[in-house]
């Protein structure tokens, strides 16, 4: 059975009314009998005057008891109502939340347990609001990302079907690349889903790894790409052991190295450095590139964010690589940041040493 705050308050008031009444009745009865006994023992009263005294005293006792019960009940009702107001507001807000609406935050005017409960509830509502904003943005971004390649594919296929254009090798390569980009984005979505939750099975499979061979293995996968692009690579890594998810860290280095190659601009090599400091290990990936403005250094790790509108999807990808990288590093209890000079950008990854 559902109990509203009002009915609960009345039931609680009647309960305390009963308890207070019993307590005052017992106290009044005890005081009355004590007073009568003392008056009979110390006073020289005849029987009639003694009876009058007893009756008058009894009337006053009953009067005081009734006044005390009424005053105590009213005071208790008022204080209890004030005490239960936040709970009533919580129930109303929870009902709105149950109906799919996001209620306003509840004002906090107390520092007791109920006040702390309201604060925790407000934090929950604020987090749900942020999640809803992120969800809507994610859906909008996904729709935006898929709309262009799907429109391109649909347009070309419709033209081929109607005979408006003739297929050739160049067109088929372009269509294949567009489909591959869609496949790549879907793969990145799967990676984000994998690393979004700390309870992921993949995240639990961590092990002690030597950093140097791990980085060397990542670099070896890009040797041919670097050679074709005419980019030199320098690897300067100190030996150390870290407790990591191997595939996750490989993906981090691959994303950062791929990012350095995509946005390579200028002269000089791409450098990968590694050094142990205090209780952590720093991995740096540096490369010549256009400087990243200070105001953008945090936003580049957001999903679907591209640094510039001029960096199209063809050159800049879907804007998920750095978001995946940050998610993996966060799951390891580490951090990632970017440092910029006039000619070079450096991404620093810090991992705790175990």
TrEMBL record:
Gene3D superfamilies: 1.10.287.130, 6.10.340.10, Histidine kinase-like ATPase, C-terminal domain. It catalyses: ATP + protein L-histidine = ADP + protein N-phospho-L-histidine. It is found in: Cell membrane. Its main location: membrane. GO terms for cellular component: plasma membrane. It comes from the Bacteria. SMART domains: HAMP (SM00304), HATPase_c (SM00387), HisKA (SM00388). Its EC number is 2.7.13.3. Residues 141-354 form the Histidine kinase domain. The chain crosses the membrane at residues 12-40, 60-79. Residues 81-133 form the HAMP domain. Keywords: ATP-binding, Cell membrane, Kinase, Membrane, Nucleotide-binding, Phosphoprotein, Transferase, Transmembrane, Transmembrane helix, Two-component regulatory system. It is an enzyme of class 2 (transferase). GO terms for molecular function: ATP binding; phosphorelay sensor kinase activity. It is a multi-pass membrane protein. PROSITE patterns: HAMP, HIS_KIN. PANTHER family: SENSOR HISTIDINE KINASE CPXA (PTHR45528). This is histidine kinase. It comes from Virgibacillus pantothenticus.
